[in-house]
Amino acid sequence: MRVRHIEVFYSVYRHKSISAAARTLNISQPALSKALRHAEDQFGFPLFTRTGRGLSPTNEAHRLYEDVKRVFEDIAHVKRTTLDLQQSGGGRLKVSTVTGLSYEILPRTIARVRKLRPDTSFEIQTLHYGDLILSLRAFETDIGLVFEAPIHDGLACIQAGEAEFACVYAENQLNHANDRIQIEELEGQDFITLNPEGPLGGKLNSALEGAAITIDPVVVAESCFVAKSLVMCGLGTTIVDEFTARSPGYLGLASRKLAPPVPININALYLEGRPLSGIGRQFLAALESELQEWQSIKRD
Predict the structure, then answer these.
(1) Could you say which of 62, 93, 230, 246 has the lowest number of CB atoms within 10 Å?
(2) pLDDT given at position 284
(3) Domain 164-264: top CATH class
(4) Under a CB-based contact definition with an 8 Å cutoff, are residues 193 and 221 in contact?
């Protein structure tokens, strides 16, 4: 049994797809299929069966996965320790984030850490929520920053702070008499909502259901960034996180927070079996400080 066979099995099990696993391992689909056949030959039993929805793990694969997962966690821990030692007191941190937190909060947090630890380097990527969770489980990310994280098996979750929802609309579209906007003011407006199957979209959907009006969305968007871009194109109004609402580069748009406020939890995720390094803990402390500073400034 080779390490490569274990790596192929782990990736295919996690993605349930040859194409997705091949992209993760940066190899061609034919090469991955060949490696998977070799792995099954080495193991002595089939690992997956093909279905209309992709690959389905066999009972043997389910039992094998837990052992393979622990092996990967141990390897990742050794790699991280080695990197920390090579940095001679510095460190390198891989952070993945949803788009909303990438505009101001994450850059400010990195700048704060770098002032204290100038020998620290970062690797940053912006991902959709589902891809971010996969990246954590694949040991490709040390810390993931998200909104409204539900409970995930094997992932530790820290609440780093809070934000709010805000309405984004064309400047000439709604009454600007008040600092905040009530959801009821959106009655009759073309509305762009977020996918309710995502954590943030689910929270928004609950808030809309609690309003005393009926809102029929003209578009359901997968991300806050897309929703705001659709407003820019004149397709209606939307409600997104306050960081996306305030992001620059959208001429002719305005934003206001909701009344009453609808809070959003900001969470940091990491693998329970992969304790944070010293620089990881320092990053989270800096993140909490930045969020506190953000909320201390009036941004209605």
Answers:
(1) 62
(2) 96
(3) alpha beta
(4) yes
Helix (H) / strand (E) containing 36: helix 29-43
The architecture CATH gives domain 87-160+265-296? 3-Layer(aba) Sandwich (3.40)
> DSSP letters along 248-285, please?
S--TTEEEEEBSS--EEEEEEEEETTSPPPHHHHHHHH
Locate the DSSP E strands across the chain: 48-51, 54-57, 91-97, 120-126, 143-147, 155-170, 191-194, 217-221, 237-241, 253-257, 263-271
How many whole angstroms separate alpha carbon 74 and alpha carbon 76?
Answer: 5
Residue 151: phi and psi, rounded to 5, are -75, 130
Q: Answer whether 87-160+265-296 and 164-264 agree in fold.
A: yes
First to last CA, the chain: 60
CA–CA gap between residue 167 and residue 189 (Å, rounded):
12
| Residue 83 vs residues 60, 143, 233: alpha-carbon distances, Å | 35, 16, 46
Of the CA atoms within 13 Å of residue 173, those in its CB half-sphere come to: 25
Cβ neighbors of 175 (< 8 A, separation 6 or more) are: 185
137-160 pLDDT, tens digit per residue, is: 888 899 999 999 999 989 999 999
Residue tagged 């080779």 (tokens): 2
- Token pair, residue 279, equals 């620089």
Positive or negative: CA dihedral 249, 250, 252, 255: negative
> Residue range 252-259: average pLDDT?
92
The answer for residues whose C-beta is within 8 angstroms of residue 69's C-beta and 6 or more apart is: 10
Domain parsing of the chain, residue ranges: 3-80, 87-160+265-296, 164-264
- Once rounded to an integer, what is the mean pLDDT over residues 124-133? 92
Interval 57-94: pLDDT, tens: 999 999 988 888 888 777 776 766 666 555 545 578 99
Q: How far apart are CA 152 and CA 142, in angstroms?
A: 16
Cα-only R_g, the chain? 22
